[in-house]
Amino acid sequence: MKTKYWIWIGGVLVAGAAAAAAWVIQPAIAPIQLPAPNSFDDASVARGARVVAQGDCMVCHTAAGGAPYAGGLPLRTPFGTIYTTNITPDTETGIGNWPLAAFTRALRHGVSRDGHLLYPAFPYIHYTRMSTADITDAYAYLMTRTPVVARAPDNDLLLLLRFRPMLAGWNLLYLRPGPVADNPAQSTEWNRGRYLVDGAGHCASCHSTLDPIGGERSPAFSGGNIDGWDAPALTALLQTPKPWNREQLAHYLRHGWSPEHGAAAGPMGPVAHSLSQVPEADTNAIATYIMSLQTPAKALPTTAAAAATATTPPASSATVTQGAALFAGACGGCHSAAAPMMATGGRPSLALSSAVTGDRPDNLIQVVLNGIPWSHPGQDTFMPPFAASLTDAQIASIAAYVRADIGKRPAWPDVEQRTTKIRKENQ
Amino acid sequence: MSTLIVNGIRHTLDIDPTTPLLYALRNQLELNGAKFGCGMGQCGACTVLLDGQPVFGCITPVAACEGRQVRTIEGLGSADKPGKLQASFIKHQAAQCGYCIAGMVMRAQSLLEQHPRPTETQIRQHMEPNLCRCGTHMRIIAAIKEVAEGAKA
């Protein structure tokens, strides 16, 4: 019995090692001469623009103030900093000498043209679900952009992780290559939504909890954290003060705000901007699929009920009073019920905002510190930053007031310490 | 009672602590350099320095300034003895209507205090929150650059 057990274990290990070895050894794909832009079909390039917007490629592959798609944006991960690469068609520093086969392999298997394994910060475990047609169109679009000479700075990663063949083991655990067949029991729109969410949209990259080696935990969409912002669970949209519906979610994805929920902030801002450029059918499909993932609504704890079970002592009345005064002078001009933006602009009350009603104070702290910067013309929402004008203690007292008086929720613990920490991490 | 430390002088004011700093500066202290523009932290005409950092005076309550150093354009120099940036703005005739200029000067001042030799890109990025409706941006940048380049010499 024991021998059998060991044979079984041994067999699994050998198979695993062989599979990992197959991952490690990836041949280089021969470089090509940069194809002339007019060698691509115009219709394919146009469709590619839509695919690249669905995939939000520009957000990560563009540095602050840098040329579009030229890379160099630092991605801070628990494992160190990775700089995104140049995906303009420059032959030396970009993908100008990549044939379609190499581009496809990168998206489907996380392998660079020269055969080295890419870090999973590049969401190939999702892009692998993209159809061949969409990958071909995205390639046509990117290969007809303006080539930019830009070499990404060297990654600053933990020593062990600089050895890329290690990623073969990671791929074995998390990469299931290739598209997934439609579910015939569901509508065409639902299937299209699932395709966009799980594929190009790679929503789970931020909205799922990550395990210690950076793999997305199951079940997906249980909420994650990215760049110091909480990415809310996408399965609890019926458990907000006003439950989301499909139309509201589709509107939010296109416009970056929802009249009954609030504005996209932090890393979600650029996502909404990308999605404002795709046809409405795409955002409707995403909303349809996401709304099918919801767990049923449960009664929300009221302040009184929550206070009975809360472990955090309520904020002192002096803190709340100070917070109320600071709120009136710093926030009330836009966020008080009487403010023109609220009274006539249709902006939602802070009582509906996930940053106020959420379990953790991080997003409220982030949005007070950073505001919602102008990032593109025609943006619907803006908030000035308060990092310079409010101290950590002042932000904590505003949070105490907003949470208790507007959100009607039990106090968050240690907001001042958390603010100090987040302020430091943001630098 | 609220205390405000403005340009190194401590003032005790009988004022509602929710009052925006801008109103206290203009109405109580009669420091009328900083201007009311939008009242929502979007234009920068009210920019003053709080502990050396540029803030929008219109959305900074007096309650937030307790024990902290406020600096306004009046602290940089006077009409007779303008400070370096003020002199450079005059030399380059960077003001047209002038409404934004006190805010522009104060934001530029905070940049030069932290980075005495900024590049033009850094100047443009730093000045980005402040708006000028007349369109004197190129003169504003030239005025700041001249002071920055003077620091290089």
Sheet-strand content of chain A, in percent, reads: under 5%
How far apart are the termini of chain A? 59 Å
Physical arrangement of strands within the biggest beta sheet of chain A: 1-2-3
The arrangement of helices and strands of chain A along the chain is HHHEEHHHEHHHEEHEEHHHHHHHHHH
Oligomer: heterodimer
Instruction: Summarize the amount of helix of chain A as a percent range.
Output: 40-55%
Q: Report the CATH topology name of the largest domain in chain B.
A: Ubiquitin-like (UB roll)
Percent in helix of chain B: 25-40%
Which keywords apply here?
heterodimer, A: 427 residues, Cytochrome Bc1 Complex, Chain D, domain 2, 3-stranded antiparallel beta sheet, 20 helices, 44% helix, globular, B: 153 residues, alpha+beta, DNA polymerase, domain 1, 2 domains, 5 strands
Question: How is the topology of this model organized?
Answer:
The complex is a heterodimer of chains A (427) and B (153).
Chain A: H1 2-24, H2 42-54, H3 57-60, E1 74-77, E2 80-83, H4 100-109, H5 124-127, H6 132-143, E3 156-157, H7 167-174, H8 188-198, H9 204-207, E4 224-226, E5 229-231, H10 246-255, E6 257-258, E7 262-263, H11 268-275, H12 280-291, H13 303-309, H14 317-330, H15 332-335, H16 340-343, H17 354-357, H18 362-370, H19 392-406, H20 415-426
Antiparallel strand pairs in A: 1-2, 2-3, 4-5, 6-7
Chain B: E1 2-6, E2 9-13, H1 21-28, E3 47-50, E4 53-56, E5 69-71, H2 84-91, H3 101-114, H4 120-127, H5 137-152
Parallel strand pairs in B: 1-5
Antiparallel strand pairs in B: 1-2, 3-4, 3-5
Helix pairs in contact in B: 2-5, 3-5
Any overview of this molecule?
The complex is a heterodimer of chains A (427) and B (153). Chain A is mainly alpha-helical. Chain A has 20 helices and seven strands. Chain A has three domains: 18-119 and 126-174, no CATH class; 188-291, Cytochrome Bc1 Complex, Chain D, domain 2 (Orthogonal Bundle); 303-426, Orthogonal Bundle (Cytochrome Bc1 Complex, Chain D, domain 2), CATH 1.10.760. Chain A has helices at 2-24, 42-54, 57-60, 100-109, 124-127, 132-143, 167-174, 188-198, 204-207, 246-255, 268-275, 280-291, 303-309, 317-330, 332-335, 340-343, 354-357, 362-370, 392-406, 415-426, and strands at residues 74-77, 80-83, 156-157, 224-226, 229-231, 257-258, 262-263. In chain A, the strands form three sheets. A three-stranded antiparallel sheet of chain A has the order 1-2-3, with no helix packed on it. In chain A, strands 4-5 form a two-stranded antiparallel ribbon. Chain A has a two-stranded antiparallel sheet with strand order 6-7. In chain A, helix 2 packs across helix 6. By secondary structure, chain B is of the alpha+beta class. A five-stranded mixed sheet of chain B has the order 2-1-5-3-4, with helices on both faces. In chain B, helix 2 (84-91) crosses helix 5 and helix 3 packs parallel to helix 5. Chain B is globular and about 45 Å long. The mean pLDDT of chain B is 96.
